[in-house]
Structure formats: C-alpha cells, structure tokens
C-alpha cells in the first residue's frame, strides 16, 4: 500500500502533514487523539482497509503532533479544530465520515457542528469531549494549581511515558468549546465504540455524549473488557465494521 503524502501550509506559516488513499467517497477522515499521531494502529488499520476496498481515506497530524510543525505545548482545542477544518477544505471537500479517537472524538463533533451538510456520519472511539475540564480538571491538585498559577504549565503524569505539559491556556481554551451536557447539534448518524475498562475516558462520559447528541441514529457499543486504545484485533474489526456501515450507500 502506498499513501499519497503531503504537507498543508496553514495561515500562520505552519505545516500539517497528511496522507491520503484515493478511492470512492464518502471520504473517511482520521482525527487522532491528544498527543497521538497518524501512524497509530487504528489509523494504519483504516488505511489498509481503504486501500483494500477502494475507499477514500485521509489522515493527518495536528499542529505540534507527529510529523506536523509546531510546539505541542502551545497547541489548543481552537487550533486543532481549525486544523481539522483546513484538512476537510483542502483534501476532503465532499461528504465525509470523520473517525475521531479520544480527543479526536471531541474535534469530530466540533467539526460536524459547523459542517453538518458535509457529514455522512461519525465514528467516535473512546470520545473525550470536554476532557480539559471534565477529565483533567479533577486531577489538578494543589501542587498542579500552583504550577499553573506560577508558570502557566503543569507537567501531567502519564501512564504511557514521561510527564507532559498541560498549559493554563489549553485548559482555559478548552472551556470555550465545551459541548456537554448538551444538546450537541450533530444530526448525522453516529457510532460510538467505548471500552468498559478504559482508565482515561470513563464509559459513562462517552455515554453522556451519546445521549446528548441530537441525532436519533446513535449506536453506543460498550466493549466491556476494552481499554482506552481499543487497538486489539477484535477492536479493529469492530471499528472497520462501524465505518463500513456509514460509508455504504443506503439500500
């Protein structure tokens, strides 16, 4: 499989790295998670599926992520939302099925709210809307608050590697894009895959999103033993099945 690759220049002179598989639409657009990149297991699995089935597929790295330019520590939800919209405009102007993982689930919803006519459906994997406030906020203890007040940066511990920077600007910016408790004005069909053993996004948080979305065509699939990444072979099979359901034309 050979992807077409490129870099999209943004208004401020930055560059977003992207990869694309040509094929039949609607275009499946991968929207990754916080601190993840487009080379992850789920994104790669979808690329292989698209190549094998002749489906159009686009994936990209947000500002400060993966192969794109920029400093992750100064990124915000505002910026990453704008990145996703720029990719849609330049690389997938027709109908799309965003596939949003973790933070990407929040970004996908924000994009769908301003481009409803473009949405053929959304697939959300362990979606983390409002994570800056509702998931990270409770972790901010006195020491973290002091660091944010004094330096503007909290080094948040991670189960996946070294501590990483969370800025006061990110937290404050995230508040302006809050979509819960809803209603969330997304009217396209939505499929949500959520692990019941996810330590990062509690399944009740994802279920709250499912209940808040306006669309009547929302399916919430709880994978009881699934973790946050949902990257096991059986999880990838479920992901591809959800995408195929939404890209297939109605009978």
Features:
globular; 251 residues; 35% helix; 10 strands; alpha/beta
Detailed description of the structure:
- By secondary structure, the chain is of the alpha/beta class.
- Helices cover 35% and strands 25% of the residues.
- It contains eight helices and ten strands.
- A hairpin with a 2-residue loop joins strand 7 (153-158) and strand 8 (161-167).
- Helix 2 crosses helix 3.
- The longest helix is centred in the middle third of the chain and has 15 residues, at 77-91.
Largest β-sheet summary:
8 strands, mixed
Mean pLDDT: 95
Question: What is the number of helical segments per DSSP (H or I, 4+ residues)?
Answer: 8
Distance between the termini: 30 Å
Shape: globular
The side-by-side strand order for the widest beta sheet comes to: 1-2-4-3-5-6-9-10
Low-confidence stretches: none
């Amino acid at each position: 499989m050979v992807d077409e690759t490129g870099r999209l220049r943004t208004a401020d002179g930055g560059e977003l790295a992207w990869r694309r598989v040509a094929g039949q639409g609607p275009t499946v657009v991968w929207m990754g998670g916080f601190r993840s990149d487009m080379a992850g297991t789920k994104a790669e699995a979808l690329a292989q599926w698209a190549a094998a089935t002749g489906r159009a597929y686009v994936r990209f790295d947000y500002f400060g992520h993966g192969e794109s330019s920029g400093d992750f520590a100064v990124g915000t939800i505002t910026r990453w939302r704008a990145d996703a919209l720029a990719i849609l405009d330049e690389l997938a102007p027709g109908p799309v099925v965003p596939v949003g993982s973790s933070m990407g689930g929040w970004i996908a919803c924000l994009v769908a709210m301003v481009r409803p006519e473009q949405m053929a459906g959304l697939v959300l994997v362990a979606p983390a809307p409002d994570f800056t406030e509702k998931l990270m906020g409770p972790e901010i203890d006195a020491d973290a608050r002091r660091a944010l007040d004094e330096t503007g940066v909290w080094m948040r511990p991670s189960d996946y590697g070294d501590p990483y920077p969370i800025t006061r600007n990110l937290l404050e910016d995230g508040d302006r894009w809050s979509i819960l408790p809803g209603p969330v004005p997304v009217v396209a069909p939505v499929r949500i895959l959520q692990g019941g053993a996810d330590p990062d996004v509690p399944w009740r948080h994802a279920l709250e999103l499912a209940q808040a979305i306006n669309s009547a065509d929302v399916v919430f699939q709880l994978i009881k033993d699934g973790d946050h990444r949902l990257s096991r072979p059986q999880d990838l099979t479920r992901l591809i099945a959800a995408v195929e359901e939404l890209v297939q034309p109605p009978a």
